[in-house]
Amino acid sequence: MRFQMRKDAAEWFRHVDKQFKLDFEKYYLCLMLGFASGTTRSVPASQLRDMTDTFPDTWKGQPRLLIGLLIAAHLDRMKIDYSERAAVNKQLEVLLDPDTPTKLSAVGIRYMNEYAAGGFDVLLERALTDKPRAPATLLRAYVKTLRQLLRDKDGSKHC
Amino acid sequence: MSFTLRILGWEATGLRCPDHSVSLVDQRNRQVFPVTLVQMPNGTGKTTTLTLLRAALSGTPPTIDQIRELAPLDGGVKKGKFVVEIALEDQRRTFELTLDYPKATAHYRTTLRSGIRDGHDLDPELAKILTPEFIRFFVFDGELAHGLLDPNQPRAQDALDALFQVSLLKQISDALEAHWEQRASEAAMKGKRAVTQRKYRWQELTAHLKKLNAEREKLRGRKSDIGRRLDELEGLIAHRVGADKRAKQALERARSERDKAIAEAEKALATAFQDAYSPQSLSAVFAKQLMQLKHNLDKVKLPSTTSKEFFLELAQGDECVCGAKLSDASRAAIRTRAPQYLGSGFHGVLNAVKEDVAHYVEGRLDRHQETFDAEMKTLESAIRLRDERIAKFDQVRTAGIEGAGGEAVENSKEQTRLGEELKVIEERLRVLASEPKGDDELDKDCIEAIEEKATEAEEDYNRAAETFDLRRRTVVVQAVLDTAQEDARAAFSKRLTADTNERLLKLLPRAPVKLSSVGSSVALSKQGNASVGQVLAISYAFLSSLFNHADQKLPFIVDSPVGSLDIATRRHVAQVIPRFFGQFVAFTLSSEREGFLAPLEAASEGAIQYLTMFRRTRATERLLQDVPKKVVQLTESGALVTGREFFMEFDVEEEERA
Predict the structure, then answer these.
(1) Long-range pairs for A101-106 at CB < 8 Å and ≥24 separation?
(2) Which one of B273, B434, B435 has the shortest CB-CB distance to A139?
């Protein structure tokens, strides 16, 4: 199973393409908005573009933190309390696979793709309706939207 | 491939005919008798025996009705068996046909040198001859004789095709057709129009691709030229502006500050983006979520120090790790609780996640966001400064140009124009070099997408062209095969006609009949219909001619060989039979002896086996008095007597009484 990005997302970033060395970087931005808003979207395969099947070596982020956020988001979505050990274990076994390069199962990657797909919807609706022409503009609007979403979800104030 | 097939004998039990066992082998020299006559009164089972011979040799079981008709009349018998032994060259084989009367089923078994096999096992060369249709030619069916002359029944051609393997040519033709059908259905296209359409599409896409590539090359060239010209213009402007020392210095200073500000902004941007790829930097809420995850996992001891596998293995043993004996109840409890522990493989993953959280996030959770926010502030400042410095530079430059006037202004205008053109070119190059989006409209100028489509179209065309070409070649080869088949039939037919006519001359010197040709049926020359006797003679002449020309030497088994022939014709038939057929087996009535037996004996030089079979009744018991026991085979239902003497004395009146 590969990480997959929406084809329209790839097109949307085109004016600021030079800022990104990896498609995974654009994917990450969408993914974080998905986690922040709790939004997922299942998209037909014809509208998705395959990317890598591993976390890119040259990506500057921390892949295991993304796995952690996926676990947290998924358990929260399933309304599973951590004290329910058997239920937690079951979901961990659904999301994870020690034998894959990403340590995520096919289902785990699929869920991650769905958060990224949902996050792109949020990016369009809340951050920038037009395609960004400057990376700094994108980053500014992105961070603002992300934090607003987290505030809305968390119910607490952040700067 | 040539071969000689002989029938060595057969055995019947539990059937409508009397139980009997017939050997066609002369025990003195272990050779098959060239002629065997089996004399059987009417109702003894000649038809039954011939039916069973055909069924056993061909492997085609009798129908349900036929099975019922083959059962003994008195009932009480549940199974009947018929076994025939053949020799193909020196390879012996036995076909056993067992009939289950209550179930109306038939079962075959084959005995070979290598052992017994279920079913009817045939070598490929035997399989072509021992077909239900062809067997009727040499286990002769009297009805077939009339069929040979019937133009509506292609019996003669069927015999010719089977024996001379002419049908192989048709099989090859059919196989070629099937091959083309399969290829065509795979490609889902037939016909030249489909090929032309695909060729046109491929050419269209190739032309479009060529056009796009040419455009890209041209644009790249133009971009390069513009770049050079812009540099040139910049140099000219700098030179012209530089004529004024103060303006030149101001411009250089503004440029330097601008370039520095641009670099600073790019650096700040890169730093901010790099940090953005850490969730804890994007927002402290993510940091908090990750820490909460770690805390929750630690609280419930996930992953535990032990794994699910440990507990499942423990449950299989007799003792716990503490040494206590495990009962069924405790084992069940262990298995029930095992899901509360993860498999050992997952431990590593979870521990790695927790380690990264501890390493990258733990501590004051806000600090990462604070650092990122500071970077964003730096970025904002750097961008403001960059924009200011760019504006400043433009301002200084414009002032310098205006101050220089004349050509400097023109150069500047040209720079602006070229700058606009460059933007358009860069946007167009971006479209040409973009990734395919899977949408025909969006991809119409995407070189990579058009390349993919052109490749697919070329393959599609090749498949169609190949199929079309394959069709043409198939039709040509089939025409050759058809011609070969017709030529072969014509050649065989001509030879057979001549040979059959020669034999007919010997068989019917007094009532000559001649064939004009052997095609789908045997055609008589000048004569409309043939008499019963003539039909039989034509059959013998044709079939013997056929068998003689074929590579395969076959036996000939016939019921009532001369019954419908007059005495003179019987004599002629008797004289030629040993020459016509390598093995001749005839089921005869006593009434056929006259005019047939003596000339047959003379022509066979005495190499004839005489067998007489009849049902055992109170009346027929009398017939066996004074007959040496060694020549009598007695079964519960019948008697089979070997020898000429008994054969000759078994007369019509006796048959009536039997």
Answers:
(1) A101/A53, A101/A54, A101/A55, A102/A53, A102/A54, A102/A55, A102/A63, A103/A64, A103/A67, A103/B349, A103/B352, A104/A67, A104/A70, A105/A1, A106/A1
(2) B273
